[in-house]
Amino acid sequence: MGSDKAPKPEIEGALQAARHHGARVLLVGPEARLKSELARYPGARRLPIEVVHASEVITMDDKVEAIRAKRDSSIRVGLRLVREGRAAGFVTAGNTGAAMATAKMVLGALPGVDRPALAAAFPTVLNTAAVLLDVGANVDCEPVNLAQFAVMGDIYCRAIFGMQRPRVGLLSIGEEEGKGNDLTREAFQLLKQLPINFIGNVEGRDLYNGDVDVIVADGFVGNVALKTSEGVARLVRAVLKETLRSTITRQVGALLSRNAFSDFKKRLDHTEYGGAPLLGVKGVCFITHGSSNTNAIKNAVRVASEFAAGRVNETIARELARLRPAAALQTS
Amino acid sequence: MGSDKAPKPEIEGALQAARHHGARVLLVGPEARLKSELARYPGARRLPIEVVHASEVITMDDKVEAIRAKRDSSIRVGLRLVREGRAAGFVTAGNTGAAMATAKMVLGALPGVDRPALAAAFPTVLNTAAVLLDVGANVDCEPVNLAQFAVMGDIYCRAIFGMQRPRVGLLSIGEEEGKGNDLTREAFQLLKQLPINFIGNVEGRDLYNGDVDVIVADGFVGNVALKTSEGVARLVRAVLKETLRSTITRQVGALLSRNAFSDFKKRLDHTEYGGAPLLGVKGVCFITHGSSNTNAIKNAVRVASEFAAGRVNETIARELARLRPAAALQTS
Questions:
Q1: Shortest alpha-carbon distance between residue B326 and chain A (Å)
Q2: Is A207–B233 a contact, with Cβ atoms under 8 angstroms apart?
């Protein structure tokens, strides 16, 4: 029930994930409504899709108290299915803060993880994927949290994007070791000791150039970087549209180039990446953009399935347990 | 001597600023070289342009020690001209870190300013200008620093962009008052008390939407936001170019739309905004991008002149002195 146009993208995304990726999907929300919507799709009955009732819905404007009070919200019910082992993972396009808070509460953290982190994947100039974490689960972080994010990001990249040895960078302001703020300078020392391919500090302009695969930041900085990117993308779209429409010649030109613009849109389409996993919780939880369409939901269901099948959480717990005795990952 | 193609953009920018804006320009750098370059422009002799000798040049790779050691660098000599009152302001496209450090050392801070801040101006969807500060002068800030940035940004916007009552926002992750990290939550309380048009928290996606005129952040976060924007802009350019070139039809379309693309480039052109002032130092210091062209230098000289003529620094010192007795701006 989370997306801006819920439940249509969720239902259609579930149908496509079932049809094309063999996923079995539990749709969580008001039963009567979901069943009547589902009945519109003739093929649905032959697909492994079930409805699980949840009487409440968390809105984008709900505050913390409201979120806690809605014990039968679709987010809470969905995450309970994961905890109880009735679902391999949970996907939501709803209120990100509510989803994160509820996942931490209902699922709890994996052993060895002090703070779960939200990891966003996006495309680069080289058409590779890069992963930025944390993009908003933790606003004030300790160096050890960033070290754990690095390990989780590395494992996620290997499991989901099939990278052998992802290059892990620390988001800072200057490439030299001494550059950055107190947090990043201390985190740098921890990241150096980890058995990952740590390439040092990277800057905001490196996020999209394909030179780094996993970018580690505290949740405040990561969130600002992600949302600033959205802002720039909107600015570019608005200005491009305006300038291309201003004369007939340009309109004809734009018409001839229209496939280029649709390719362009596709290349930069975040819906291909399946949303952001909350890494470090005991279970699989993917949060997608509120503007998610059918494709975004389909891909999120696919990637969540891969995440569960790839036993990413087991690997995270094992790696962090192995590292914990080392100075690098002890909570101070 | 600072830009990537120095001294050509500097010399041509100075010529244009002299010709079109009546600026008198002192070109600082190796005298023989600058004079021989200047001799190539026949009109130069009739313009009020002089050369001031500086035997050393700070490179982009120079470390702090090298910067300190080069006592006769063009940056140091230029800033000394400002301190001695022989120049109304200084413009450089050189090493940003070196320029900031040298300006703080040579000029010192204005009374009432604990930390000078670098302020970057950029275009919005609505074709207005917005100013983000600090974009890199201070990595670890106290709430009081952010309050001073807000006052300086407000004054800068009024003086240079002619805004009556700029809307000042605090860069955070969520709009509600309680959202953000420890620093922004405390800063929020100080900003509320200031005699400025404080509109509360803004997010990364608001930077470019025209809803806010002055955006306040610590230098780490501001720098990440600025450089991330550069990264996205490069990604968009690269992908657009690639997709528009991939078939003949698209190439023809792109050719017909080429004026649109040049308009587009112009709308988003940072060179129109005249670079970033280091606000809060006793003197006028503008730092432009290393890739600055003639237009960027011309505009930086123009804006630096306006900054000096508008007595922005006097206003900053007066406003901060007036506010200092208030709890809001006392250094804790």
A1: 29
A2: no
Enter the tokens of residue A57: 């819905």
Q: Is the pLDDT of residue A331 over 60?
A: no
DSSP designation for A24: -
- Describe the strand order of the beta sheet including B90-92 as a list of residue ranges: B90-92, B285-287, B276-279, B117-123, B129-133, B214-216, B167-171, B197-202
Identify the closest residue of chain B to A137 by CA–CA distance.
B173
* Residue B187 CB contacts under 8 Å (≥ 6 apart), including other chains: B143, B146, B147, B170, B216
Element housing B271 (H / E): none
The answer to whether the Cβ–Cβ distance between B257 and A259 falls below 8 Å is: no
Q: A170 forms bridges with which residues in the sheet?
A: A201, A216
> Which chain A residue lies closest to B249 (C-alpha atoms)?
A256
Query: What is this model's ipTM?
Result: 0.86
- The encoded tokens of residue B55 equal 């035997």
| A220 vs B181, B252, B268: nearest CB | B181
Q: Is it the case that residue B99 has pLDDT exceeding 50?
A: yes
> Which amino acid belongs to residue B66?
A
- Which secondary-structure segment (H or E) carries A216? strand A214-216
Q: How many CB pairs under 8 A join A and B?
A: 212
In whole angstroms, what is the distance from residue B105 CA to residue B281 CA? 9
pTM of the complete model: 0.89
Answer whether the bond into residue B134 is a cis peptide, omega within 30°: yes
Give the gap in angstroms from C-alpha B17 to the nearest C-alpha of chain A: 29
Please spell the DSSP secondary structure of A147-196, one letter per residue: HHHHHHHHHHHHHHH--SS-EEEEE-SSSSTT-S-HHHHHHHHHHHTSSS
Nearest Cα to Cα of residue A140 among A107, A103, A108, A182: A182
Hey, is B244 helix, strand or coil? helix
Distance in angstroms (rounded) separating the CA atoms of residues B110 and B175:
32
Structure tokens at B186: 């405390």
Residue A239: strand, helix, or coil: helix
CB atoms A124 and B252 under 8 Å: no
> Nearest C-alpha of chain B: how many angstroms from A170?
12
Of residues B265 and B157, which shows the higher confidence score?
B157
Q: Which two tokens stand for residue B105?
A: 């050392």
CB-CB: which of A204, A226, A230 is closest to B230?
Answer: A204
Determine the distance in angstroms separating the CA of A156 from the nearest CA of chain B, rounded to an integer.
Answer: 23
Q: Do A267 and B226 lie within an 8 Å CB cutoff?
A: no
